[in-house]
Amino acid sequence: MAAAIAGVTNTASTTATSAAAAATTAAQNTQDRFLKLLVAQMQNQDPLNPMDNAAVTTQMAQIQTVQGIEKLNATLQTNTQAQAYQSVGMIGRNVLAPGSFIDLAAANGGGGAGFDLATAADSVKVTVIDAQNNVVRHLDLGKQSAGASVFSWNGMNDAGAAAPDGTYTFQVDAKLAGSKVAATSLSVGAVNSVLMNSSGPSLNVNGMGLVDMAQIRQVM
């Protein structure tokens, strides 16, 4: 897997370099054509009605704007291609993304999920709920820092008995000095495939469907 990811990274780097070189050549060609036309225009102008300096300045500003747009488009295209290659290397990996389910499998030692806190909290509690909307387990996670964090559940219910394997939902209650802290629930899912579209790659994650790359909090 490491060799495959390295190959993907090298390919992305080569593609990005080629795109950047092509963008530079295109911009240079555009500038050369403009300068040739401008010189020809000035050489053939009417001596009694020469070109206005303001007009020349305006044309120079226009060519610089065109060059800037071309470079920006090339940069965006290069970044999208690099992101696409990187996302392919995530197939088969587990990722942490917005969701409120937790898969319990005793053979795997239980289940895991996460949350993303807007600020630090001095009290974080997680409530695990089964498919019949019954509360199965309360988890007291204590103090937690801001940002994404993961937690594990050993599969035991509040009575100390093993809960059956399956998919559960959970809720996060975070507080700081008694005031509620905004918390986003995060689920763990395996990346099954990658979908390429005009806005960039999206990951097809087990249990979550299509997830945008920007929503991934952690690769596990």
Task: Walk me through the structure.
- This protein has 2 domains: 2-88; 94-219, Immunoglobulin-like (Sandwich).
- The protein is 35% helix and 38% strand.
- It has helices spanning 2-43, 53-88, and strands at residues 94-98, 101-104, 111-117, 121-129, 135-144, 147-153, 166-176, 179-181, 183-197, 200-205, 209-212, 218-219.
- Strand 7 and strand 8 form a beta hairpin.
- Helix 1 runs antiparallel to helix 2 (53-88).
- The chain is elongated, with a radius of gyration of 28 Å.
Provide key terms for this protein:
single chain; 220 residues; alpha+beta; Immunoglobulin-like; five-stranded antiparallel beta sheet; 2 helices; elongated
Number of domains: 2
Shape: elongated
Order of helices and strands: HHEEEEEEEEEEEE
CATH architecture descriptor of the largest domain: Sandwich
The helix content is: 25-40%
Task: Provide the CATH top-level class of the largest domain.
Answer: Mainly Beta
**Global structural class:** alpha+beta
* Cα-to-Cα separation, first versus last residue: 14 Å
Evaluate the radius of gyration: 28 Å
